[in-house]
Amino acid sequence: MKIGILGGGQLGKMLFEASPAFDIELYFLENDVNAPCRSFKNAFQVGNILDENDVYNFGKNMDIISIEIENVNISALKRLENEGKKVFPQPHIIALIQDKGIQKQFYQKHNIPTSEFELVKNNTEKKLFFENNNHLKIQDFVQKMRTGGYDGKGVQVLKTKEDLDNLLFDVPCVLEKKVDIQKEIAVIVARNPKGEIKAFPAVEMVFNPELNLVDYLLSPADIVQNIAQEAENIAKNIIEKLEMVGILAVEMFLDKQNNILVNEIAPRPHNSGHQTIEGNKTSQYTQHLNAILNKNLGNTEIIEQSIMLNILGENGYEGIAKYENLDKIEAINGVFVHLYNKKITKSGRKMGHVTILDNNKNNILEKMNFVKENLKVIA
Ligand code: ADP
């Protein structure tokens, strides 16, 4: 069984690492010759995942086609699907998710809780929206590019009236009501073609406000049982309504009144599921393969509390990556280092992650602080 993955980044690398447990061969299509999957030499094909011919020609030699990034050419995937290939997640779902505007309309249609929004074509329309609704304050909104944003790029949190004169992104956007965030949580859920659905317990993302990136992630989330259950139910409801096959990450806000609001979804293994490799009975990568191969889904229970820290390129360094104090970190009990095999480091670039397992709250935070203070990626 040949499985072709569009994208050859760190998510692809960890998917590959889960693959020996299955009777499959994985192949990756990726345009960056220095990408993390480059070391799987026979499995690595260079090509553009946004190019119709490249994707089609890659996919026609596969039995199943999947993705590790959602920014891919949809028409090639639709052609492959029409010709009888299994494409999971299904191309029309990837298309829906590529556009945050259509995503929001999907939540609205299915009564899935999400913050109020307006779709606008450009900056002129945004200004008009506030002129026509002068009871609304611009400070209560966030604007997001409908397509192409990632890792917080493409999101502008509006803070003052003056921001209306300095609007970024003169392209189609979602204007979204700002949520009074108590916590950001995520649930990863999987569904196979038989219709079986399983969710991983909710995790909590602690944000670094400067970089607008996840600082660290806590599994399980520090929330009461009924909220955790509600978050799982929302995630299961979304994947069921989509009838999607594969793994889906559902990012949510818990607001200060304890309402859960869906922020966005990603139809692939996700940054908020790395800790499942060591922290849960089944990893998100194994679960994705279970799902697309129509196998029974694995047990998602947590083995031990964990923290996942992204290893980011140190500010002010760019060039061939060097890792400081790696052996000190690897020597700590319950600490697992994953490097992504990226040649070049840049300020804030995701170079790897560390998972820390420890059921004692004080110990786990102490280990995390040690990792943060000592592990540096420089050039
Ligand atoms: P990306 O797809 O680039 O990750 P997100 O939609 O997840 O972008 O937004 C990035 C971050 O911006 C969120 O994690 C959150 O901290 C903040 N944010 C996004 N939407 C809202 C909102 N409606 N209210 C308040 N903060 C928001």
Provide the fold topology.
Layout: E1 2-6, H1 10-18, E2 25-30, E3 44-46, H2 52-59, E4 64-67, H3 74-82, E5 86-87, H4 91-98, H5 100-109, E6 117-120, H6 123-132, E7 141-145, E8 155-157, E9 173-177, E10 181-191, E11 197-199, E12 203-208, E13 213-219, H7 225-242, E14 246-255, E15 260-266, H8 276-279, H9 284-292, E16 306-312, E17 319-320, E18 322-324, H10 326-330, E19 335-339, E20 344-345, E21 350-357, H11 361-374, E22 376-378
Parallel strand pairs: 1-2, 1-4, 2-3, 4-5
Antiparallel strand pairs: 6-9, 7-8, 7-9, 10-11, 10-12, 10-14, 12-13, 13-16, 14-15, 16-21, 17-20, 18-22, 19-21
Helix pairs in contact: 1-9, 2-3, 3-4
Bound molecules: adenosine-5'-diphosphate (ADP).
Describe the protein in words.
- This protein folds into three domains: 86 residues, 3-Layer(aba) Sandwich (Rossmann fold), CATH 3.40.50.20; 62 residues, ATP-grasp fold, A domain (Dna Ligase, domain 1, 2-Layer Sandwich), CATH 3.30.1490; 198 residues, ATP-grasp fold, B domain (D-amino Acid Aminotransferase, Chain A, domain 1, 2-Layer Sandwich), CATH 3.30.470.20.
- Helix content is 27%, strand content 29%.
- A hairpin with a 4-residue loop joins strand 12 and strand 13.
- Helix 3 runs antiparallel to helix 4.
- The model has no long low-confidence stretch (mean pLDDT 95).
- Bound molecules: adenosine-5'-diphosphate.
- The site of adenosine-5'-diphosphate has 20 residues, from strand 7, strand 8, strand 10 and strand 15.
